[in-house]
Amino acid sequence: MRVIVAKRVDSGSADLSELRELATAAGYTVVDELSQTRTEDPAYCFGEGKIKELAARVAELKAETVIIDNEVGPFQMFNIGQALPAETKVLDRFRLILDIFGQRAQTRKAQLQVELAELRYELPRASAKASLAKRDERPGFMGLGEYDESREQDIKAQISNIKAELDAIANKEADRRAERRESGFDLVALAGYTNAGKSTLLRQLAAELDVDENVNKHPDLDAVAESQDMLFTTLGTTTRRAELDHREVLLTDTVGFISELPHWLVESFQSTLESVYRADLVLLVVDASEPIKAMREKLVTSHDTLHERNEAPILTVFNKADLLDTDELEEKRAGLSGIAPNPIAVSGKTGEGIETLRRRVEAELPTWDHERLLVPNADETMSLVSWIHDHAHVQTESYEADQVLLEFDARPAVIEQARSKAAAINAVESS
C-alpha cells in the first residue's frame, strides 16, 4: 500500500526517519514525505496551504494512505480527510503504532494489551463525538458517524474487564518469577529502543536450548528469538537460558521502546514491561552506530520508561560496536557518560565483547549468600547434593566418614530450602 508520511514541528527541522521505519514495519511502501515548521493549526494541525500541497501529492503519486507523525485530534483528522482525494486513509502516529502491535500480537496477553491500548486511544475521541453530537443534534455530525451515547460507558467497561484479565495474568507471571528465583535462576531483562539489536544480542548470550530440555527447571522457555532489521519484530517476550561462570540466568527480550509515547500507551503494556521492572538486572541496549545526539535521546526515552517502576540496577550496553573504530567508540563513551556510566561495548552480530559482557552481568547481579552445611552421609543426602548443584554455586563438597560437608553460594530462598532439606535428613537419621 502506497503511503505519504508527514510531520509538523513547532521549530527546527522535522525528522521523518522513524516514521518511515514504522510505516515499513506496518507493511506500507513510503512514496513521499512532507514536513512543515509552524505552530499547530487548530483546524488542520498543518497550515491549510500545506494540506493543499499534501492533497496534490496524494493525487499525483496515487497514494492510498497518509500517516502523520503527530497526535491529531478527531476533528483535525476529519478536516484533513475532507481535503484529500476521496477514499484516502489518514492515520496519526499512534494509530499506526497500534496497527503494528495488532499485526504482531500472537499471545492472549499481547492481544489484550493491544485491545486495551486501542480502547484508551478511542475513549477521548468518543467523548469528543458525544459532546458535539449533543450540541449539534445531527446524526453523523462532521462526518464522524452516528454516535451512541452509551459508547463511552461501553469502552470504560471493556477497559475494566481487560485490566482485570491482565491483572490475573500478571499474578501468574509473578508466581512464575518467584518459582524461577527459588530454582536458583537470576532474571535478566533486555530493554532499550526498538531496533537496537536486543534479539540478536539475546541469541549471542543464550544457550541453544530446546523447550523440552530440562523442562522441570524452565518449562516455558522459547527456543527461538527472532532477529530482523525491522521495528517491533518482538512484541511479546522471549525468554532463554544462559550460563555464566557461577550463575544461571534467564534472559528475557521484550518490546522495544520508541520516542514520544503517550502515557496511556505505555500503561497499556505494563503487563509486558513487568518482566523488565521485576528483573534482577536490566541490560539497556543502545545502537552505538548512531550519532551521539540520537543515542542520548533514545537513552533518555528508555530511562523515562523505566524510571517510575523499575526495581533493578541498569547496565548500559553499546551494541553494534563492530561498526565503529576505537576513537569513535571512546568519543561516545565520553559524551554519554552522564547517562550511560561505564557501558559495555559489544557486537551482537559478530560476538565481539560478549564474554566481557557475561562477566560484567555476573558481577552486577545481586550478591548471593554463603552457606556451610554438614549432613549425614545417608541415602537422601545424594539427592540433596544434586539439588544444591542445580540451584547454587558449590565451592566445597567433601565426604568424611559418615558426614558430607557442602559450602556454597546461593539466593537466600535457596539457602532456606537447603537448610530445610538438611534438617529433614538429620531428623530421620537421629530418630
Give a written overview of the molecule.
With about 425 residues, this protein is of the alpha/beta class. Helices cover about 45% and strands about 20% of the residues. The chain has helices at about 15-25, 50-60, 75-85, 95-105, 110-135, 150-180, 200-205, 265-270, 270-275, 290-305, 325-335, 355-365, 380-390, 410-430; strands spanning about 1-10, 30-35, 65-70, 90, 185-190, 240-245, 250-255, 280-285, 315-320, 345, 370-375, 395-400, 405-410. The chain has a six-stranded mixed sheet, sandwiched between helices. Strands 2-1-3-4 form a four-stranded parallel sheet, with helices on both faces. The chain has a three-stranded antiparallel sheet with strand order 11-13-12, with helices on one face.
Which secondary structure elements does this structure contain, and how are they paired or packed?
Elements: E1 2-9, H1 17-25, E2 29-37, H2 48-61, E3 65-68, H3 74-83, E4 89-92, H4 93-104, H5 108-136, H6 151-182, E5 185-192, H7 198-205, E6 238-243, E7 248-253, H8 263-268, H9 270-277, E8 281-287, H10 292-307, E9 314-319, H11 326-335, E10 344-345, H12 354-364, E11 369-376, H13 381-391, E12 393-400, E13 403-410, H14 412-430
Parallel strand pairs: 1-2, 1-3, 3-4, 5-7, 5-8, 8-9, 9-10
Antiparallel strand pairs: 6-7, 11-13, 12-13
Summarize the structure.
This protein has 14 helices and 13 strands. The chain is of the alpha/beta class and 431 residues long.
**Count of distinct structural domains:** 4
CATH superfamily grouping of the largest domain = P-loop containing nucleotide triphosphate hydrolases
Structural class: alpha/beta
How many β-strands, per DSSP?
A: 13
Radius of gyration: 27 Å
> Helix coverage percent of residues?
40-55%
Per CATH, what is the topology of the largest domain? Rossmann fold
Q: How would you sum up the major sheet? A: 6 strands, mixed
CATH top level assignment of the largest domain: Alpha Beta
